[in-house]
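User: Continuing from earlier, I have the next pair ready.

Assistant: Great, send them over.

User: Here they are, in order.

Assistant: Folding the first of the pair now:
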Amino acid sequence: MKKTVVLISLVAAIIVFITSCEKEGGNSTKISRYNETESHNIGQNCMNCHKSGGEGEGWFNVAGTVYDDTQTNTVKNATINLYTGMDGTGTLKYTIQVDGLGNFYTTEPIDLTTPLYPSVTGSTSTNYMSTSITTGACNSCHNVSTGKIWAQ
């Protein structure tokens, strides 16, 4: 009888341990880089999967997709900058490289509690968002309720 109780307790402890562990990949560091082509799901909200408890590897703090001025093709190797002031004024707080597929993402800590104003720079132009961001899930608005992020 004691062996059965011990065995059941051991099995229960193992099950609790296994199910309480983070998913594979957890909050591993994932940062987009120029020319890399490891990203996927262009135009979709990255944070649907790349979040605590999500299926994606790494918990993104800012992520999205950049398109050209026709808003049909992606722009590779652009740059996202986050400033404390509108139109590139104030202090440059963060820079995120857009990868070779047009996606950008980072697991680096980004303080979204203070106003940050994004810009996107392509090979020939820079565009500024006129309002501060309230979320780092850029594609949750862009492509849905507002126009796509674009640069030339």
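And the other member of the pair:
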Amino acid sequence: MVRTLSCVPIETASDNKDTPIIPVRCFSCGKVVGNLWESYLELLAAGVDEGDALDKLQLKRYCCRRMVLTHVDLIEKLLLYNPLDRDRR
């Protein structure tokens, strides 16, 4: 039996390059944190410290703070590896 994986085409992801790959919910408590990423980056760009930015976003639990604080946005690096751009042999 051969199993195949269905994949979403990369073009749909590359249309919107500002889309972060941050988990939608906290792994520990389940609070929604995915919508706070852009606000967090804006606060950091404004010169606010990380802890103060998390406080302004009302992230009080350390598990939720960890989700935002330790996230590494890899979408730009992942989009460089588009398998559809490779020459097919």
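Worth noting for the second one:
Helices lie at 10-14, 37-45, 50-56, 62-69, 75-79. Residues 37-45 form the longest helix (9 residues).
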